[in-house]
Amino acid sequence: MDPEYFQSHNMSWGTLGTVRPFPNFHPEQDAREIRTALQNKDAVTVVRILTNRTNAQRQVIAQTFEEMTQKDLAVGVKKAMSGELEILLLELLMPPVQYEAFRLQQAMVGLGTDEETLLEILCTRSGEKLREISAMYKLLFKKDLEKELRGETSGDFSNLVLALLNKDNFAVGVQKDIESLSASLNGKKADAALWINILTSRDSDHLNKVLDGLELQRGQTVDQTLDKKFTGDVRQGLKVLVQCIQNPGVYLAKRLVKAKTPILQGIMISHAEEDLLCIRAAYLKLTGTSLYTALQVGHCANTP
């Protein structure tokens, strides 16, 4: 395993995740147990091991399994498991950047586009991370992510999505941005291009100051402002972006409340090592029920 993978992994993930490095990690033992479990179709053992290891540790297990058996672990999972459990285990085996690229591809494949998932990933990931995801998308699917997004979207919403994909940080005065956004609201319809430009080209600390200042100046929440001045997909996109700037944990918790299984798994796998503790806290505050309890009774995924 490339040591740079561990270095980048450790630098990428914060300390607010629910999955931490497993102490006394022995990949050979894990690989042997998984091999036996797959032969016996013992899902409990496979789930116990893979969900209690970090993604980096899972990559070592997968490599060790292949060296030990001359077989790909993902292929073994496909043969031994089925249904939603099979999908979950295969997703757990994907490296983080590959998984995000996969989720974007799944959001655009087939009839219709899952715009909410596109927004979730594009709004919650940094510009640097999105550049890595774009490169991985090209490697996996032999297609350019920007061109794919352009083909799946239109109008101001397309402009927003593409700006998010290419987001960057430029230093500008907070008050100047407040005045610019406020001035854009004086007409019957706000200037979407200006909002897109500012909200996708500043860092989150700067934008939180700008949004707080705008709310003080206008006497209403930014969400209320967007409802009044924008329509259609771009309004929804800007609302999601503002929520992610102000509190991404709350946005993701709200998304989990009515999420079906694919969305639920996507969020939890993507954020398990990063900020799932924040999402759990926001979910509890939002619903009065712990996320753990909701999963046990099936409230999140709308399952019986």
Describe this structure in words.
It comes from Gasterosteus aculeatus aculeatus. The chain is an all-alpha fold. It has helices at residues 3-12, 27-39, 43-51, 55-69, 73-80, 83-92, 96-108, 115-124, 127-141, 145-152, 155-165, 174-184, 192-199, 204-218, 222-229, 232-246, 248-257, 261-271, 276-287, 291-297. Helix 7 (96-108) packs antiparallel against helix 8. The longest helix is centred in the N-terminal third of the chain and has 15 residues, at 55-69. It is elongated, with a radius of gyration of 21 Å. Residues 1-14 have low confidence and may be disordered.
Short description:
With 304 residues, the protein is an all-alpha fold.
Give the helix/strand layout.
Blueprint: H1 3-12, H2 27-39, H3 43-51, H4 55-69, H5 73-80, H6 83-92, H7 96-108, H8 115-124, H9 127-141, H10 145-152, H11 155-165, H12 174-184, H13 192-199, H14 204-218, H15 222-229, H16 232-246, H17 248-257, H18 261-271, H19 276-287, H20 291-297
Summed up, the helix count is: 20
How far the N terminus sits from the C terminus, by CA atoms, comes to: 42 Å
Strand content: under 5%
- The radius of gyration is 21 Å
Q: Quick check: average pLDDT?
A: 92
Shape: elongated
User: Strand-and-helix sequence, N→C?
Assistant: HHHHHHHHHHHHHHHHHHHH
- Major beta sheet, specifics? none
Number of strands: 0
Helix content: over 70%
Low-confidence stretches: 1-14
Structural class: mainly alpha
